[in-house]
Amino acid sequence: MLATGTAVDGGFSNQVLDAQIGFAALMNALSRPGTLQSPGIHVVPPSPLSAMTAIVALTLCDADTVVWLDETVNTSAVRDWLAFHTGTAITAEKELAQFAILDAVRSVADLQGFAAGSQEYPDRSTSIILQVAGFSSAQKFQLSGPGIKEVVSFAPEGLPEGFPDFWAANRALFPRGVDLIFTSKDQLAALPRTTRIDEKLGGHDVRSR
Amino acid sequence: MTLQDTGLAAYNFAYLDEQTKRMIRRAILKAIAIPGYQVPFASREMPMPYGWGTGGVQVTASIIGPEDVLKVIDQGSDDTTNAVSIRKFFEKTAGVETTTRTGEATVIQTRHRIPEAPLKEGQVLVYQVPIPEPLRFLEPRETETRKMHALEEYGLMHVKLYEDIARNGHIATTYAYPVKVEGRYVMDPSPTPKFDNPKMDNCAALQLFGAGREKRIYAIPPYTSVVSLDFEDHPFEVNRFEQPCALCGAEGVYLDEMILDDKGGRMFCCSDTDFCEERRGEAESVSASNGEIV
Q1: HSE toward the beta carbon, residue A123, CA cutoff 13 A
Q2: Per the residue annotation, which of B36, B155, B281, B291 is the catalytic one?
Q3: Residue A206 CB: number of other CB atoms within 10 A?
Q4: Mutation choice for B interface testing from A123, A128, A188 by most B CBs within 10 A
Q5: What are the Cα distances from residue A50, in Å, to A117, A183, B22, B51?
Q6: B42 and chain A in contact, CB less than 8 A
Q7: Closest Cα to residue B208, out of B131, B132, B124, B119?
Q8: Three-class secondary structure of residue B83 per DSSP
Q9: What tens digit of pLDDT does each residue of B147-180 get?
Q10: Mean pLDDT score of chain B, rounded to an integer?
Q11: Per-residue pLDDT, A209
Q12: Which fold has domain A15-200?
């Protein structure tokens, strides 16, 4: 019997079906930007990796992927856990990463420097997985673009100052650019590079679907 | 659940191994993020020949779950060889429920048609694509077409449509009619009749395209602009049919010609068999409730 909390514990209990549920949540998140997805899968990754981040990593990462970890997440426990459950390579170079996992983002500079792909191969870009506390920030964004019928209200917590400008610059690179996957404790949402953000300050309600 | 319990043969759920699914899933997510861009992927050999929908099958196998309900159509029909064999393939390898009803399906794999009934949010339409590159017959070199997409250089496609007009007086392209997705990428909608092009625009369902032999996956997210290429003085027009469906009387739908005998007898009826059957079913129940003999 293994002690709990080791690298071999806490992965998918059903490799095949859990991965399908995780992927369905990601596919819905990216095809309907800003909508919150709650894949009901139980995984127990080492802190500070959140369960939802772990689900994304277990669903998408394997020996063919390269992952970048920020200072907070880059612990030996996390590296060992990812190595055992996914076999993914870890890199220190932002530009080489297919996936990046970030926990504490202090400034937009933390989100910069990742691969945006080329004009010929815009798919060779980094998908940034950003851990957030939740999705009920006072600062609400109004999203529009592909996947959104009219407009969607989106309020991830703890984004750095200047995020809308960062995102507008990313949007301007299209078809190049990064895609963002936000993970809270039990929900995930995404901003593909096509989504436009309109800032909406204050507590009053905005239209949402 | 052990293998013996499931009664399935000894392969993974939905046939593909997990690493292949992850690779295809990563490609699908990129395709959704870059609407209309063809994402290269490492297409696998499938237990059916190229040209039988191996691209669509790989996409379906990577997205489908045990709770999904699958519909497969071939030129609009649920009952032709390709549709029947792919439906059976997933019944056998994934144990999923299948249906012919468009409204009941969560995943619809299609060869060359879009169902007549409007698709809903939450549905996924998976196209089988033979040649994903819309510029391929104009420029055979992949290096060149890739550069043309990178530079958004689509003049050649307009020249092709112009030559249609010069020769025939109108745009003679009737299927695989090129579209522009979200104002950026020119995309091949697969060999669907151009009649179906308007259904792609601002569609509530997610549309995924898989080309197995050519190893490309591309996508149109829901509510995305899809515009058929045309000219101001030669606007895009869909095919029109002079008579309604001979079986259900539907107008404004795509019709197939059916040969009835060897004396030139023919009729035109809905290409979408489910749409036609549902309409005939409704008509029967209406006349039955009116006390008529049917």
Answers
A1: 23
A2: B36
A3: 15
A4: A123
A5: 28, 8, 21, 43
A6: no
A7: B124
A8: helix
A9: 999 999 999 999 999 999 999 999 999 999 999 9
A10: 94
A11: 37
A12: Rossmann fold (3.40.50)
Count contacts between A and B (CB, < 8 Å): 110
| Chain A residue with minimum CA distance to B146 | A120
Cβ neighbors of A11 (< 8 A, separation 6 or more) are A43, A58, A84, A85
Whether B276 is a known active-site residue: answer: yes
Q: Are A91 and A65 in contact (CB under 8 A)?
A: no
Is the bond into A175 cis (omega within 30 degrees of 0)? yes
- Angstrom distance (rounded) from CA A206 to CA A197: 13
Query: How close does chain B come to A124, measured CA to CA in Å?
Result: 9
Q: How far is CA B174 from CA A141, B140, B170, B192, B235, in A?
A: 43, 22, 11, 9, 14
Do B33 and A179 lie within an 8 Å CB cutoff?
A: yes
Complex ipTM value: 0.94
Please tell me the predicted confidence (pLDDT) of residue B6: 61
Listed by start position, the domains of chain A span 15-200
Chain A contact for B224, CB < 8 A?
A: yes
Instruction: Return mean pLDDT, chain A.
Output: 93
pLDDT band at A1 (very low <50, low <70, confident <90, very high): very low
Stretch B218-228: mean pLDDT = 98
pLDDT at B21 over 70: yes
Assigned token pair, A113 = 């420097």
Closest CA relative to residue A179, chosen from A114, A132, A134: A114
Task: DSSP letter for A96, please.
Answer: G
Chain Cα centroid distance, residue A163: 15
Task: Tell me whether B201 touches chain A (CB under 8 Å).
Answer: no
The pLDDT value recorded for residue B287 is 78
Is B22 near chain A, with CB under 8 Å? yes
Q: Which two tokens stand for residue B256?
A: 């197939």
Residue B63 contacts residue B74 (beta carbons within 8 Å): no
